[in-house]
């Protein structure tokens, strides 16, 4: 299994901060030069990472010849998007998470599978079918167990212990890192693959990287919703194996093809990431 990359991934990655000090924000400052540290609030930290990555995105569109735009509403997908000279869009969603331990697996959410993926226009800037690509810029960090809290004078800036450390990043096409499980049981969000290492995310090593973008779309637009009846859920599927069984009822040759591809994927993933 080889890592996937393209000009979008290469360009954004090139401009992302490489030095951890460039990610190190320590608090909010007022005109009295008083610093209010922000602690371990993951929502605040996620928003700060969006601010940091904005410069990389601005530099990227200049090189690519695109324009950069930000969603005007926080709940509308995507966080940012590029517009090409022909008017087509490229979605850039910023996702952050923290490591719960050195060996614990982490993952992200890949957005809703019941809104714009199904009707084209719900909770998205423009129309889903106006986008040529969907990318996730992921940031993984470790929480600092004893960060500085409260108000600190500007003269004591250097004494502040940041709320996070050990930053790792990746940029990858969304479908290539999404898995076949929901992000959580009581929502209709797509879950990504999970790993204790960032390597599979850098590689774009999710199952749909082998099965294909069309299968990713078909899988999630037909996946049972949280509010569906138990009878409906039982008639559909909840993982790739049962999806292939479901597909075999209407397209036996395609299901056999996918079964072989999925088996090959599992072997390749194990060989690349789990080999001792």
From TrEMBL:
<dbReference type="GO" id="GO:0016787">
    <property type="term" value="F:hydrolase activity"/>
</dbReference>
<dbReference type="InterPro" id="IPR011335">
    <property type="entry name" value="Restrct_endonuc-II-like"/>
</dbReference>
<keyword id="KW-0255">Endonuclease</keyword>
<keyword id="KW-0540">Nuclease</keyword>
<dbReference type="GO" id="GO:0003677">
    <property type="term" value="F:DNA binding"/>
</dbReference>
<keyword id="KW-0378">Hydrolase</keyword>
<dbReference type="InterPro" id="IPR015314">
    <property type="entry name" value="Restrct_endonuc_II_EcoRV"/>
</dbReference>
<dbReference type="Pfam" id="PF09233">
    <property type="entry name" value="Endonuc-EcoRV"/>
</dbReference>
<dbReference type="GO" id="GO:0004519">
    <property type="term" value="F:endonuclease activity"/>
</dbReference>
<protein>
    <recommendedName>
        <fullName>Restriction endonuclease EcoRV</fullName>
    </recommendedName>
</protein>
<dbReference type="InterPro" id="IPR037057">
    <property type="entry name" value="DNA_rep_MutH/T2_RE_sf"/>
</dbReference>
């Amino acid at each position: 299994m080889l890592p996937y990359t393209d000009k979008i991934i290469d360009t954004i990655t090139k401009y992302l901060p490489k030095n951890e000090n460039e990610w190190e924000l320590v608090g909010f400052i007022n005109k009295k030069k008083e610093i209010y540290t922000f602690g371990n609030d993951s929502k605040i930290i996620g928003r700060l990472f969006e601010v940091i990555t904005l410069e990389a995105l601005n530099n990227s569109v200049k090189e690519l010849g695109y324009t950069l735009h930000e969603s005007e509403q926080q709940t509308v997908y995507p966080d940012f998007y590029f517009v090409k000279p022909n008017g087509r869009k490229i979605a850039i969603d910023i996702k952050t998470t923290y490591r719960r331990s050195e060996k614990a697996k982490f993952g992200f959410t890949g957005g809703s599978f019941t809104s714009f993926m199904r009707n084209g226009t719900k909770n998205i800037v423009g129309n889903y079918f106006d986008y040529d690509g969907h990318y996730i810029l992921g940031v993984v960090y470790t929480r600092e167990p004893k960060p500085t809290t409260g108000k600190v004078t500007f003269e004591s800036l250097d004494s502040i212990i940041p709320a996070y450390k050990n930053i790792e990043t990746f940029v990858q096409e969304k479908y290539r890192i999404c898995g076949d499980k929901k992000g959580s049981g009581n929502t209709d969000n797509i879950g990504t693959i999970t790993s204790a290492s960032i390597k599979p995310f850098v590689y774009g090593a999710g199952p749909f990287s082998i099965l294909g973008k069309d299968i990713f779309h078909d899988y999630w637009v037909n996946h049972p919703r949280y509010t569906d009846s138990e009878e409906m859920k039982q008639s559909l599927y909840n993982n790739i194996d049962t999806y292939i069984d479901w597909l075999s009822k209407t397209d036996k040759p395609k299901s056999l093809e996918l079964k072989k591809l999925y088996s090959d994927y599992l072997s390749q993933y194990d060989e690349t990431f789990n080999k001792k």
